[in-house]
Fold:
Amino acid sequence: MVKKYPAVHIDSLFHYTMEDGQIIFPETPCPLPLLGRTALLTENEILFPLEKQIPLEKVARVRRDCKKKVLLVNAERALKKVAPGGNIRMFDHIILIGGSALDFEISDMISEYMLSQYGIVCGAGNIRGELGPRGAVAVGLVQNYLDKLDENE
Structure:
């Protein structure tokens, strides 16, 4: 969960601070046992407290460092494999699709790295303008199947 959700510090029963410094005022008071603790904020705005008392900044830093070590190296390696002549600079832009594109940090991380190293812009795809990035594989498989049906007719 730490790699997936942003961390927050519960400052009071009526507000908490996101790892990016944003202050959130929830509609209902935070549970008293969470007061002064670091927690993760899920997509349903449910607070999931960390077992150990770890500072907000450390959670965010460790998570980002791990993602950078794994994702940036893998993204660069994958792009070299598909780039014409293995030259990543042949790409103008990269569109992330699939589950990773939903991560709140990954597209920014890859974009920052690719822009600084290769001048490539990166963003998350929105399949068919309405399905978001997650449906990409399924849509691609169905489209491929339909294309093959058309070829056989």
Q: What stands out?
A: Residues 84-147 form one domain. The radius of gyration is 20 Å. The CA atoms of residues 104 and 125 lie 14 Å apart. Residues 56-82 form the longest helix (27 residues).
